[in-house]
Amino acid sequence: MFTRETPTDPAVHTGTVRADDEIDARERAASLFPGVAARWLCPADAIDRDSSTPLEAGEPA
Amino acid sequence: MIQLDTLLCGCEHPASASLGDPDVEWVLEDGELLGDRDPLSPSERLAVVDQLAEFGIETLRLSGTAGIDADAIDELVGRAAEQDVETTLRLNGEQLDRDRLESLADAGLDRISVVVEGLSTPRQKHTASDATDTALETLRAAEGIDLATELRFPLQAESAVDMEEIYDLAGLLSADRFRLTHVPDDDLDDERRRRAVRRLADLTRDAHERGNHLETFLSGGIDAGYVTEYTRDRLDGECATNVRESLRERLGTAPSPPVAKIGPAGSVYPGPFWDRYALGSVRDRPFGAIWTDESNPLLERLRHEEAALPDRCRHCEFGDVCSGGSRGRALVAHDDPFEPDPVCYVDKERAASGSTAESTAD
Fold this sequence. Notes:
The complex is a heterodimer.
Chain A: E1 2-4, E2 12-13, E3 16-17, H1 22-32, E4 38-40
Chain B: E1 2-3, H1 4-9, E2 23-27, H2 31-34, H3 42-55, E3 59-63, H4 70-82, E4 86-90, H5 98-107, E5 111-115, H6 126-142, E6 148-155, H7 163-172, E7 177-182, H8 190-209, E8 215-218, H9 224-234, H10 237-253, E9 259-262, E10 267-269, E11 277-278, E12 280-281, H11 287-291, H12 297-303, H13 305-308, H14 311-314, H15 327-334, H16 348-353
Parallel strand pairs in B: 2-3, 2-9, 3-4, 4-5, 5-6, 6-7, 7-8
Antiparallel strand pairs in B: 1-8, 9-10, 10-12
Helix pairs in contact in B: 3-4, 4-5, 9-10
């Protein structure tokens, strides 16, 4: 989920909603972020994660 | 979280350990939370412990560990212990024998926690009574091992009458702590919740007088209003004033949100009941960056107690000691995290009418 707080703000990633279907996802996003200028929802499996910083354990601090 | 024995018996509350850092609940295995994502690998889990320690997390509660390799759990616990993160292992029906408990204690585990939902009666299903037996057997096995023990009792309509006996069992099995938790239950009305907490408070004071120092905890902050009322009705004026002051101080120093939850694939949730909304994943960003993100308007609102308060709570007599309970429970019950917590059990009419009058405890 990406939200834009005001019409001039950039869209920022504001989390993930888990829902049964697209309509449910939209409703859940709307109930959590009711006052924003825009909400963008994208199915998780449509996102390609290509990170250059994998989660790896090093020496503990 | 309210420690009832210290609060009622010493009329004081221990100083809050930290301001701003939440406790972390980490569910290592849960098919529904995991969905179709890959679970964190053992190496990734160790990296998450490092992230938590680096951020300053002091208290970690592990659950969903039944299907995880024992050596991997020991390694995780050891990693946390090396970095002074206090770790509790919360069991949900699985039984651990003495050898396994010793291994966990050697790895650095601080506390083992079992859940007892009720006692075996002919009315109960066999699975429920089996789970109770395994929990009690685990507590028995832990006696004499350098490991603190906790018995969790979720208050439910069906088993509320068992509470006193379960509290006694916790003492008999040398548990260090009895913890009452609230779960939504339509069959448990406010008066029955008040009666249960009143009884637990009485039991705690009686036990203390008899020299039995079983710690009694109430989970979350939703009990602060009723505890204030209890002390006002049952303790002397000075003690009641001290208790209210302690609860106020607790509220002032409690982190908001108070608990962060991590799922099996590394998703970070803003609390224990937020399974359908995750803030982000530790695979993408360190825990601290997710938790302190100021660009998320929902997290910002949760962070600021006044903005997160449901309307009804703004007029409540106990608004100085209670921040409105769990926003996650409200989300599950109302699809809106800023509605009232469904398990709030203060006398709403009385609390609302008392909000403008000066409390006798002030």
